[in-house]
Amino acid sequence: MSFTAEVRDELSRQPPVCEFCDLATLAALARVCGTLSIAGPGRYRLTVATETGAVARTMIGLTHKVLKLKTEFTVRRSVLHKVRNYLISLPDQPGLDKALVLLGVLDRRGGLVGGIPRHVVARPCCRLAYIRGALIAGGFVADPRGDFHLEIAVQGEELAQAIAGLIGEIGIHARVNRRKLSYAVYVKSGDDVRDLLEAVGATRSVRALDDARAMKSVKNEVNRKVNAELANQTRSAGAAQRQLELIAEAEARGLRGSLPQALEEFCDLRLAHPDLSLRDLGEVCDPPLSKSALYHRVLRLEKLLNS
């Protein structure tokens, strides 16, 4: 199961906080992944098509619980993608027109609603329930072992901006991006993704995200130390090679035999241990010498050859 599917499944099992939260969740489901068909004056059919069992289960359960309406349920299997496709329909029936107004799909005059009616999200808990429903219906949460990303795909800019506004009311910055045939409400910050999932009750998913972030932190620290060590080794190898070149130049110019004792000892040490850093080279001296002491001998050798 993908991380998105786990989040959706967890959210679909959250109990309502107040008596109107279920309506808010159902309204989000209807708006985000529902299609309204109009057969004539006052004759409607609302259809939700989804590949997610959590969406189908929540849609059917809340429709019966909140609206007391009849639903039709069909399961189809895609031969191409080898996945199940669930089709939930609210056929034309008495009370459906009033239910569509209650869900914020239609206004009282029968016109389509662009944003989110305030009566659907009047309470703070209902606003969270609407966000929860939108995530169940059209949410995507990237596997936290990779990049942090959460988005909700919706039809219509007005609805996208309204959902972003609801998320903003709980202190989380959400952006809206236009896609080819839809709009995406998205959150990129790891902290914001975590805070949003926690706010809507996905505590198990938050723990998984925290574990992934901790693992990332450990890996990043290990990588940083390894990279630093490799960089140090590269610098040390380059410095050692330069010192060997200075020694070779001294020999070519016949200066080895006339070098001061300290420089002669350094040359012998470096030729005997061509791969050691200055710090490690100092430790094999008898008595041991500091890195600074050996570095000053290198500078003396350079100065001698350049004079």
From TrEMBL:
Residues 21-93 form the Sporulation transcription regulator WhiA N-terminal domain. Keywords: Cell cycle, Cell division, DNA-binding. GO terms for biological process: cell division; regulation of sporulation. The keyword DNA-binding applies. Residues 129-219 form the WhiA LAGLIDADG-like domain. It comes from the Bacteria. Residues 222-304 form the Sporulation regulator WhiA C-terminal domain. InterPro entries: Homing_endonucl, Sporu_reg_WhiA_N_dom, Sporulation_regulator_WhiA, Sporulation_regulator_WhiA_C, WhiA_LAGLIDADG_dom. SUPFAM superfamilies: Homing endonucleases. GO terms for molecular function: DNA binding. Belongs to the WhiA family. Involved in cell division and chromosome segregation. PANTHER family: CELL DIVISION PROTEIN WHIA-RELATED. This is Probable cell division protein WhiA. The lineage of its organism: Bacteria, Bacillati, Actinomycetota, Coriobacteriia, Coriobacteriales.
